Amino acid sequence: MPGSWMTERDLTTLESLHASLGTRLSKYHKPELREAEEELVDFFKRWFYYCNNVMATNVAGNEPFYDWEDQVYFDLMGNISRGEGFKEHFGAIGPYMNNANIAFKELEITATAPDAVHTTQLQRFKGVAKDGRAFDFTYRLTQILRKTEDSWKIVHEHLSFPVDMQTGRANFTDSNWDMREAYNLSKGKQNL
């Protein structure tokens, strides 16, 4: 169903992924790059499976997914530039959020070259942290992936929450947040 939350079990084909979008497909898809986009459907099946079933007990299991040396990460909790900082961050956060699941919607995979892809999606991260605190937040995620030899690697991730410009507060849970309403654009005013 378009715009519905999905897991790795829902990723079957590029066509079904496109059909799941609640918006139109980007005009930047090129037929000659379809193979790269199809490879990324498989990549994301494995990546979401890892996040939902393996990460809590095997943080090192994320090795196949990231280019550790070149990764640039704009996280919800700060920025991490290239190098070991990202690996340490992932190693700390994975076990802490050991009883969690990630669902996604609006995942669009767009190849820009045979070895370069960018993705956009919404993710919902929900569970219970190691200290017993429940969490449930929805954020936007943009990723850039590169293909080296025969494997795809994430080289950049940018996570963000929408911000209500009237209050200056982040919206942690609403994936249907309306920017026009936050700016009062629907009433012909801007409250910036």
UniProtKB/TrEMBL annotation:
Species name: Macrophomina phaseolina (strain MS6) (Charcoal rot fungus)
InterPro entries: NTF2-like_dom_sf, SnoaL-like
Domain SnoaL-like: 98-163
Domain of life the protein comes from: Eukaryota
Listed Pfam families: SnoaL_3 (PF13474)
Name of this chain's protein: SnoaL-like domain-containing protein
